[in-house]
Amino acid sequence: MTLTAFAQRLIDAVGADSVLTCADDIAPWLADWRGMYRGCAQAVVRPRSTEDVARILALCQSTATPVVPRGGNTGLCGGATPDKSAHNVVLSLDRMNAVRSLDTIANTLVAEAGCILEDLQRTARDANRLLPLSLAAEGSCQLGGNLATNAGGVNVVRYGMTRELVLGVEAVLPNGEILHGLRTLRKDNTGYDLKQLLIGSEGTLGVITAAALRLYAPTPVRQVVIAAVTSPRQALELYELLFAECGPRMQAFEFFTGECVDLVMAHVPGVRAPFGERHPGYVLVELADTADEQALGALLERVIETAIERDLCADAVVSSTLAQVEEMWKLREEISEAQRADGPHLKHDISLPIESIPAFMTSAEARVRGVCPQVRPFIFGHFGDGNLHYNLSRPAGAPADFMARQGEAITAEVLDEVARFGGSISAEHGIGQLKRDYFVKYKSPLELRLMREIKAVFDPAGIMNPGKLI
């Protein structure tokens, strides 16, 4: 195969072993994992260092070549998939996967963007520390993607989103300049916080190559309870009680409907129903602490007894072993896989003021059923931080392309209701390609203008991740 002049310049810059140009080699890098998007590229580049990334971006800017940064390809919005332009270059940081330092006095970890999240969790654990970022894709997602999308996950109630765990970043700007910001200071009030512009920017401003992360004391003592609730309102009241009584020990507060449990039971082998009878909704709560398992268990049992006495839940079961903890979590974590087995569905990753969730669920369902009375809602999410995965499946017996034909009308009803309640159309998945039109619709003109002006400062040539976000 004859190389193009540009491909040869890439090879000259970073070496032949870091550049893929054969169509068969490039093909696996051109689609998202859900198969919703497929694009084109003239090359895939896999640098080994920040200096390599700098050389690649400088070359791309000088030739007006679009660059699409790609992490572990676990995103749900097509943010790491190139568009149809044959000139694209896909930039993967999977070879940049070193832990540069770990400090158990300052409780910091400095790692490169290609590190797998689960590996970083393990590294922290081996040093008797906790990296609390945890999400379903942690076995394959990369730190760079977590940073680029400001990933959430199950521990946001206690530790916050990804951006709240980051002390500093190293990044390469589109012109090849390296931003050396890997400071591990907890306090630094010296002007604009540039790292926060890069976190959540979905690769549209530059490429984050490494980050300094906050670590915490490990919380090996865990207690989980699944409580049956009659309504989202009851779940909200239970949340208020648990927050008041358990404080910072509450690590997760998850909600899922009875329909979600039905779906998991139908499609996932080896999962047991939490109670003898079906309930309209369920709450999964995890408490974690540094020591004294007996005291933590006693606290949780006391609070649950209070909840039952106050009619804040219909029934509850508290874990007594680690195996039970994992079994309870499996019921929640397998919902997405069960939906995949059920067939095509609409995903709405939304956030709302927590106190508005019950009212939103009532009004949104009325609006959705006004468009399609037989649609099947499967609603679950991180109730404790206001994040719902408001997912909808086609009516029973409907053809597989039902949502492809009806989805836009249904989504319009859901997102209009989100806006009415002062919520967000993207809680933790980002914008990517999937939500770009909705992003423009629901963001204020001033916010959009400021974001475009920031984009122009960082990326005046417009080469970074075209077609995404803005």
Automatic annotation (TrEMBL):
Residues 37-218 form the FAD-binding PCMH-type domain. Keywords: FAD, Flavoprotein. It comes from the Bacteria. One of its GO terms (biological process) is respiratory electron transport chain. Signal peptide: none annotated. Its cofactor is FAD. One of its GO terms (molecular function) is catalytic activity. InterPro entries: FAD-bd_oxidored_4_C, FAD-bd_PCMH, FAD-bd_PCMH-like_sf, FAD-bd_PCMH_sub1, FAD-bd_PCMH_sub2, FAD-linked_Oxase-like_C, FAD-oxidored/transferase_4, Oxid_FAD_bind_N. Belongs to the FAD-binding oxidoreductase/transferase type 4 family. This is Hydroxyacid dehydrogenase.
